[in-house]
Amino acid sequence: MYDIVIIGAGITGAMLSWKLSRYRLKIAVLEKENDIAEGATMANSAIVHTGYDPEDGTLKAELNVKGAQQYEQICAQLHCAYKTVGAYIAACGAEEEEQLAVLAARADARGIPYRMLSRDEAIAEEPNLSEQVTRVLDFYTTAVIYPWEVADACMETACGNGAKLYLNAPCCGITKDSDGFTVETPAGSFRTRYIINAAGVHAEQIHNMVAKADWHATPRKGEYYVLDQDAQPIRHIIFPVPSKEKGKGVLAIPTVYGNTLIGPNSDFLDDPDDNGTTVDGLAYVRANISKTLQNIPLNRSIRTFAGIRPTTTCPDFIVTELPDVPHFIDAVSIESPGLASSPAIADKVIAILAESLTLTENPDAVMTRKAPVVLAALSDAERSALIAENPAYGRIICRCEKISEGEIVDCIRKPCGARTVKGVKKRVRPGMGRCQGGFCEPKVVHILARELGISPLEVVYDSPKSNILESDNRI
Amino acid sequence: MKRVQAIIIGGGSAGLSAAVTLKKNGISDVLVIEKDEEPGGILEQCIHNGFGLQTFKEQLSGPAYAERFLRMAEEENVKILCNTTVTKLTPDKIVEYVNAEEGVVQVQADAVILAVGCYERPRGGININGTRPAGVYTAGQAQRYLNIDGYLVGKRVFILGSGDIGLIMARRMTLEGAKVVGVAEIMPYSNGLPRNMKQCLEDFDIPLYLSHTVTKVFGKDRLEKIEVVAVDENKNPIADSEQYFDVDTLLLSCGLIPENHLAEQAGVRLDPSTKGPFVDDRYMTEAEGIFACGNGLHVHDLVDYVSLQAARAAEGAASYLKNGKPQGEPRRIVSGNQVSYCVPSKFYPADPVEKLTVYFRVRTPMDSGTLVIRCGDQVIRKVKKRKLLPSVMEEAVLLRKDMTDLKDDLTIEIVEG
User: What ipTM goes with this model?
Assistant: First the structure.
């Protein structure tokens, strides 16, 4: 019997399992995909919004501010990248400048630091701002992270404290009886006292297994370009002034490792798993980025992708215990700023749990993880010392991102480690660079095969059926 | 810090040729740095023949061609450091490399030759929409899986782009038992060498769809289907021309891009039309003492030219090490009518080389045309040319007397007739 089953290992589920892992609890995390962080956590703008945007009085406003305040500390504790780049809200004309004043007033009320920049001051920092930009509101504490790195670090640490992660375990049925729930999955049945629904775009299905939801999933797709590291048109995140109709609009985002994201659009979807890019979606991105920026080298794009936001008919986050189904807690409708809010969403879920569950701290819980070796972050002497100890750190596998065999092996061997080519790419980034794995993927396939003790034919890109090689043609 | 006369970054066809030539020109202290397990570069996976017709007057496979140069390098006692990746290059020619044996090492070079090669344009650099399943590879990646590792990547294959690697892979995968259902080329003409069109597609009845491209891929796990459309003269999709092919594999042969991250790090200026460094008639980049050659300079269609130009770059580097920079100020070599780029793009009228071969490509196919080399209005040479194709590199030859004391830039162009 588990105390808690968390359905979904995106940032919401991963952050919650990490925070819960400090208590004496039996926790299982059920993930329907072949890796953690495969849905909205995999494909989003990667921004820790400070919390100026959500309307007053919403859960979003409360949890965004509280979540963002924790992030830097969490990233330091879990050895994750956290880069404060600042966010420029670029107003074009008098009407939009009035909107900046509204945002500034909200920021004042919420204790979020900012400064107002004239066009000239902003241009001095960001020469590619468009001609139309007249004034800029700079939220200079805004940071970018690698969302799946945080989810991975949380999951790894939670599992170190005894949480169990089950991959390829989609929840296909829930039954309730007097002492709890039974969750059915192809990976087995799970008896549990509590269920947390953190299933992202599929949360409505899960909810409907125990009670009819009074909200509906309305997933929305957002498409992005990724630009080469050598093309860095911006240093800050550049937002247009947000609007009710268009949300946060099309942004330019400098990522942790020096690439630039341009996007997203926002289109409602029929199929919550349709993460394909579209002609119209990317055309919208191209057309709309020109409102705030010029000279964006979209010809330096190395990848395009689409992410799906778990939007619902409820405009706010829903973090609540179902009134008719005690011990079933929804953490759903977590669209933007869900990533920034996730630490506070976890806190809120834990507060709900604490009303009926005794949470006893486990003195043996370790709330940090072993710092991963990141060669690029070390001095020459440190790198040499490490290579002398383990020569695999001296064999560079990914020449674009300069990732060594040692780092790849580490990310496979660690708890909740990579099992797939995309899993390796997510964790240590071979294939994220300009050649997109053209050179390193064959090497990564061999390292995975060797480390997992399987044939290269069994190595998959992502899902269990996404094999990379078809047949062994050696004579 | 250790000091080396000349460091060559890359031990492929360009790097090996440059190393041998440096030695033959009296430069004794040469170090080649190669990231892979053995030297030879991309030749090692090019097991088809057709290499060496110019250099050795015979048809060799890629590995055999590399072997010839390796033997010469051995005879010249060239030091090759394998499994070693260069991680940094500074404008004052400090080379930082890393390997398992030595860790992180910095070496001061008197001259550096970049022989770094190129990479294949990935899917993200082409407008292919849809999902991101397994089964989409660059042609060279599939070639490596097959020819080095021994694995076939799929059974039903479509190829986008009629570049030579794509054509070679169409034949290779067919011979290994895959069904290649077609090749699409966005241009109205093929981008591969004529001999590859014949031997790799026609001889195997593989259809070529000119003025077509792949616009979308389908499949959640592994590729299931692709959408192919016809395009107009501006490469825009033509409405209602969609065709669908059920394939598990899509190979991309959509162009090679010189790899110049290190060059940019060293402050070397790149030519936007080649994506390689601007070089002078000695193959020196705009950073003093840093030279460039091979596919990292501009993408060649024959390895023989890679070897040849790398030898010229090595002669340039040897001359620089002995005599320093050329005399006087350089003049430009400008791409004129119908010429998409020229390499080298500079020469020294006060100190010209004995003979300068300028390599160029035409913008569009032409049955015939006249190559004109001129300085302002003064025509230096006119040469009739037949069957000019963008896929075939052309040459313009200049002798010392042609260049001596010219007062203006040189223009290379193709005119009708």
Answer: 0.94
